[in-house]
Amino acid sequence: MELSKYLMPLGFTLLPSLGGYISGLTMKDSIKTWYPDLKKPAWTPPNWVFAPVWTTLYTGMGYASYLVYRDGNGFKGDAAGALALYGTQLALNWAWTPIFFGARKMGLGALEIVTTAGCVAGCIYMFWGINKNASYLMMPYLAWLCLASSINIWVWMNNKPAVKNE
Predict the structure, then answer these.
(1) Cα end-to-end span (Å), the chain
(2) pLDDT for the residue numbered 165
(3) What residue stretch is flagged as signal peptide (predicted)?
(4) Around Cβ 53, how many Cβ atoms within 10 Å?
(5) b/e per residue, 69-104, with b = 16+ CB within 10 A?
(6) What span, in angstroms and rounded, lies between the C-alpha atoms of 69 and 78?
(7) Which residues touch 141 (CB under 8 Å, ≥6 apart)?
(8) HSE (CB half, 13 Å, CA atoms) of 143?
(9) Looking at residue 137, what is its pLDDT?
(10) Cα separation, 43 vs 94, whole angstroms
């Protein structure tokens, strides 16, 4: 068996987690110092839930992108547009953590995560015509983004900075 037959799916599958890990490095201090003091909605999962959920979602979306690449004849075939949109949503996904936790821009984070969810919905639609299983693998990710978006928007709306009178 050819080594690339195994390396290609592995590379596609691991890429989202690698980027997520690097992006997550920006939140270590904020998770301990800033985030605990924010008002959060009752439906916010406990912090320990996020790592296993994101690991699972990144694995699913990465493998979905491989299936689309494989069945859509790569970056030059029918999959080109779907993979471009996938790359866009992945870059947006990775950018959210530095925006929300690093820069502490809750409003911009809300706009960014809703945009990400829209791109993921587009991926699901575009993946469907290439590989239905790839679409199914992206659906839990969209559901999680909807939950995360609602939390981000609630936090932004309920943690407005106090205006200083000088």
Answers:
(1) 72
(2) 47
(3) none
(4) 16
(5) bbbbeeeeeebeebbebbebbbebbbbbbbbbbbee
(6) 9
(7) 57, 60, 61, 120
(8) 8
(9) 98
(10) 23
Identity of the residue numbered 28: K
Q: What is the mean pLDDT of residues 22-42?
A: 83
Question: H/E/C letters for each residue in the chain?
Answer: CCCHHHHHHHHHHHHHHHHHHHHHHHHHHHHHHCHHHCCCCCCCCCHHHHHHHHHHHHHHHHHHHHHHHHHCCHHHCCCHHHHHHHHHHHHHHHHHHHHHHHCCCHHHHHHHHHHHHHHHHHHHHHHHCCCHHHHHHHHHHHHHHHHHHHHHHHHHHHCCCCCCCC
Instruction: Please state the domain extents for the chain.
Output: 59-159
- The pTM for the full model equals 0.89
Give the position of tokens 């912090």: 47
CB burial of residue 46 (10 Å; 0-12, 13-18, 19+): exposed
Q: Residue with structure tokens 């939140």? A: 27
Q: What is the pLDDT of residues 98-140, one digit of tens each?
A: 999 989 999 999 999 999 999 999 999 999 999 999 999 999 9
